[in-house]
TrEMBL record:
Classification of source organism: unclassified sequences, metagenomes, ecological metagenomes
Membrane-crossing residue ranges in chain numbering: 22-42, 54-76, 82-104, 239-259
A Pfam family per the record: CoA_binding_3
InterPro entries the UniProt entry points to: Polysaccharide_Synthase-Rel
Protein name in UniProt: Undecaprenyl-phosphate glucose phosphotransferase
Species this chain originates from: marine sediment metagenome
PANTHER family per UniProt: UDP-N-ACETYLGLUCOSAMINE 4,6-DEHYDRATASE, UDP-N-ACETYLGLUCOSAMINE 4,6-DEHYDRATASE (INVERTING)
Length: 266
């Protein structure tokens, strides 16, 4: 409409006319955009957090989508694009997608805070890193993540007794426990994320922690400093401005579990 029916972008001597091909191109653009956004993990809430290359991935997805439209026109031998139309398609798509996602994000954050649906986060290890993680989550996660407690060795919990008492006073509710009881604590508290923050844990101790959590529907994230795991099991994440590595859990959950059940029944 802006290209062909307005004086702002319409030409005095029209070189291109509005025909049915533009309707087809619009349909292809929408369908391919859904697929490309899926490939760029732009429908996964954990991966669309601003700061994790979020805006760059949107720009790349839209740019690739424009190229797909042009290739589609060549293949069907209906290449009759207006360059102004392509220009408007690119920038208006960016504006509308950014605006709509910003509105959805703001509304979602308000609902999560109002309904108290924040993701419960349990931190393994108490110390400077744990304090930094909690402070950053409180400031920058917009209420999406909530630290519910700490798990560590007994001597470490006793060493940071003053900090824990202060945190307990501020939160009114704080889970404290020993690392040996991690699985029980996760089950009882309903924690959805476990962040291993202490660099003092050795490789085999971390393996034991992962073994304890195997089979539980919980995301395990490790504060940077542990690079011994296979890259296939790791993915970079950012929560509240904190760079974290997520270790792929062993098991089937959510949509993957549904697919597995369908295949099993088939």
């Amino acid at each position: 409409y802006l290209r062909f029916y307005t004086k702002i972008f319409g030409a005095d001597r029209a070189t291109y006319s509005f025909d049915e091909h533009y309707i087809y191109y619009s349909i292809v653009f929408i369908l391919s955009a859904i697929f490309i956004f899926f490939l760029f993990n732009l429908y996964n809430w954990d991966n669309i957090y601003r700061g994790s290359g979020y805006y760059t991935r949107i720009l790349k997805a839209i740019s690739i989508n424009i190229v797909v439209i042009i290739i589609f026109g060549y293949i069907l031998e209906t290449f009759s694009f207006s360059r102004i139309w392509i220009f408007l398609l690119f920038f208006i798509s960016i504006f509308l997608i950014f605006l709509s996602r910003l509105i959805i994000e703001m509304v979602t954050q308000k609902l999560i805070r109002r309904l108290d649906l924040s993701s419960k986060t349990l931190i393994v290890g108490i110390g400077e890193n744990a304090r930094r993680i909690e402070d950053s989550l409180n400031k920058y996660s917009h209420g999406l993540y909530k630290v519910i407690g700490y798990v560590d060795k007994l001597d470490k919990l006793e060493a940071f007794k003053d900090y824990l008492e202060e945190s307990l006073y501020n939160k009114k509710s704080l889970i404290l426990g020993l690392i040996d009881d991690l699985k029980k604590i996760v089950k009882k508290s309903g924690a959805q994320r476990v962040i291993i923050s202490s660099p003092e844990y050795r490789y085999y101790e971390i393996l034991n922690i992962l073994e304890e959590l195997k089979g539980l529907d919980v995301s395990v994230l490790i504060f940077p400093g542990f690079f011994e795991f296979s890259i296939r099991r790791m993915s970079m994440r950012e929560i509240g401005g904190i760079p974290l590595m997520q270790i792929t859990n062993i098991g089937f959950f959510g949509l993957n579990l549904f697919y597995k059940n369908v295949i099993d029944y088939a």
